[in-house]
């Protein structure tokens, strides 16, 4: 089986590419180096290409059996800073990949985000939760869902991962792969003896899932791809507030750190105190269940021996 991956050098893409190579899949790796962390994986070169170039995407991927479309302008801040690029990459680029999949009958895995739902109206959160994004990032991911669903009908199998908030680090070919997520940021600050800055009110909660668990979810889906069009939440099953995270980091830090509440500069994100996600559908459809815990990763990142 031949698997194409966009965003192959990124936080998820690098580890996923390595996992598929190690499992014996043929891979075609693409990245435009905007946020990539590696240029090759296990001696497999990542081709420079941009998902906004439809003709190039077609030339590169038309022999693939599955495309995993990870390339995106990721996160609220980056999309707000570069709104035109967010539209071009997250919406037009996704349309380009979906069109290639339809034209050549290639199955597609597309990562959406919990940001598509805005303020949760129904708890626990499931795949069919109403969409009402509060920011541009969530809107572009919602439009990506719509594009994939409409293009897939009668053309290819598609699986959309409605992912919760990622955390964690891993090593690949001697390099640490990480991202500026709240847990990773807090542990780094604690290692440096710096204060943990929490945006008010601090009780805003999210579900947190380890990046390696997410990589496992993709690998499972490639191994046994479900038929039709499906959306599944990919989550860790741990609903924690930002203050909860800060308290855990403070508890296990070997250096003394303080928690500082500051005004929240982000008015376009949900401040809900309950973000429980129903994780049963991913287990039923692809056999995925998160295996890693926030506390264990915090302790590992802090080098805690307790």
Compose a concise summary of this entry.
It is built from ten helices and 16 strands.
Please outline the helices and strands.
Blueprint: E1 2-6, H1 11-22, E2 26-31, E3 40-41, E4 44-45, E5 47-48, H2 54-61, E6 66-69, H3 76-81, H4 83-104, E7 107-113, H5 136-152, E8 158-163, E9 165-167, E10 170-172, E11 175-177, H6 182-191, E12 196-199, E13 205-210, H7 211-223, E14 229-234, E15 239-241, H8 242-252, E16 259-262, H9 280-286, H10 294-302
Parallel strand pairs: 1-2, 1-6, 2-5, 6-7, 7-8, 8-14, 9-13, 12-16
Antiparallel strand pairs: 3-4, 10-11, 13-15
Helix pairs in contact: 1-7, 2-4, 4-5, 6-8, 6-10, 8-10
Question: Main attributes?
Answer:
10 helices; 306 residues; three-stranded mixed sheet; Rossmann fold; 22% strand; alpha/beta
Task: Describe this protein's structure.
This protein is of the alpha/beta class and 306 residues long. It has two domains: 2-165 and 210-234, Rossmann fold (3-Layer(aba) Sandwich); 167-207 and 237-275 and 291-302, UDP-galactose 4-epimerase, domain 1 (Alpha-Beta Complex). The protein has ten helices and 16 strands. The chain has helices at 11-22, 54-61, 76-81, 83-104, 136-152, 182-191, 211-223, 242-252, 280-286, 294-302; strands spanning 2-6, 26-31, 40-41, 44-45, 47-48, 66-69, 107-113, 158-163, 165-167, 170-172, 175-177, 196-199, 205-210, 229-234, 239-241, 259-262. The strands form five sheets. The protein has a seven-stranded parallel beta sheet with strand order 5-2-1-6-7-8-14, with helices on both faces. It has a three-stranded mixed beta sheet with strand order 9-13-15. A two-stranded antiparallel sheet has the order 3-4. A hairpin with a 2-residue loop joins β3 and β4 (44-45). α4 (83-104) runs parallel beside α5 (136-152), α6 (182-191) packs parallel to α8 and α6 packs parallel to α10. The radius of gyration is 19 Å and the shape is globular. The termini are far apart. 47% of the residues are buried. The mean pLDDT is 97.
